[in-house]
Amino acid sequence: MTDDYRPDGGSMEFDDSPAAGEVSRSATRSVHESGWDDVPDDAHVVEDAIGAPIRVPELGTVLVTGGGGFIGSHLVDALAQWNDVRVLDRFDTGSRQHLPDAVTTIEGDVRDRGLLAEAVTDVDVIVHLAAQVSVEASIEDPLNSHETNVAATLDVLELARREDARVVLASSAAIYGDPTSVPIHETDPKRPESPYGVDKLAADNYARVYDARYDVPVVVLRYFNVYGAGANAGVIRAFADRAAVDEPLVVHGDGDQTRDFVHVDDVVRATIAAATTPHTGCAYNVGTGERTSIAELAGLVADRTDGTVAIEHASPRAGDVDHSLAAIDRIRSRLGFEPRIDLERGIARTLDGAGDDR
Question: What is the pTM of this model?
């Protein structure tokens, strides 16, 4: 990995984003494109929430830590038909019932080194999703957050070194903190504002070192605001839950805050691409490159209820960033990733599956 972090939180990493005023050819593609024209007849394919294809390679034996959770269960669904998939999960927030029968499930904590070592034996790819993802919980108990998000990640990397396995590591936009400008590029300053963000940045750096020093092929994916059926957190889940029982949607502050909402099926698409790319040793933002205000989001959800759900405003929440938007030029150019699910259709599918608690 070529990141060389400066004291100011920036990076010496080469930034291959288009110059100001330029628009990459891929950036002009619409997320509405179906994508089927590019898929060979003999390719392994699953359909996403809007019927667009997700190509699934034969990876061999794949361990997905946290595979019973929101993102993990969607990924496992896609991989299982053509791969030997193992899932290591505590199943405290996730559920076995959403996993295909052919999947090998291992119940336990990723911090259990002995169990993790057994789960990793003879694997080809490790997708490391298991994490303590609550910012609030990380503030209340930073040591526990560190043990889960940093120490366990180091164990995963060391065991991947033993097994000669590739690692796809889930990171987060939280590493950037409150950005000074948007869109956010991978090389932008990193000033996390919670123990969770610090943890993810530390894991990000460990991945860089293991790729550069120990020849462990690692790809880091910095997920932005992931949503979809089965999500157990996030503003879209909160709005969907309230809309389902005809309660007002609560917008904190004036609603001008913006986020880059990316559908879980597009996250699956990016994660699979990371499992096969020759461009390892890099971190990639995973988003859509489009931003939506919280007020606009509330309006989209309310419109799906035929206007029967009201929108209310409450006091701003401390610590909320004003704006977040992923620059996705790098993942487009190197991994061939193109988000296909626009927010309006993604919201519709999410509300249709609001009872899907993965």
Answer: 0.89
Give the amino acid at 104.
T
Q: Please write the tens of the pLDDT for every residue from 228-267.
A: 999 988 999 999 999 999 999 999 999 999 999 999 999 9
Q: Spell out the residues 6+ positions from residue 335 whose beta carbon is closer than 8 angstroms to its own.
A: 270, 273, 274, 277, 279, 284
> Taking Cα atoms as reference points, which of 355, 340, 356 lies closest to residue 31?
340
CA dihedral 298, 304, 310, 316 (to 10 degrees): -10
Domain ranges in the chain are 26-226+261-288+326-341
> What span, in angstroms and rounded, lies between the C-alpha atoms of 200 and 29?
31
Between CA 336 and CA 26 the distance in angstroms is: 9
Token look-up 């610090």 returns 198
Answer yes or no: is pLDDT of 352 > 90: no
In eight-state DSSP terms, residue 56 is -
Distance separating alpha carbons of residues 226 and 142, to the nearest angstrom: 24
Whose tokens are 């400008």? That residue is 181
Distance of CA 19 to the CA centre of its chain: 26
Q: What tokens appear for 26 in the block?
A: 């891929």
Q: Which CATH number fits domain 26-226+261-288+326-341: 3.40.50.720, 3.30.499.10, 3.30.1330.30, 3.40.50.300?
A: 3.40.50.720
CB under 8 Å to 265, separation ≥6 — which residues?
48, 49, 54, 74, 228, 340, 341
> Which residues are annotated as catalytic?
196
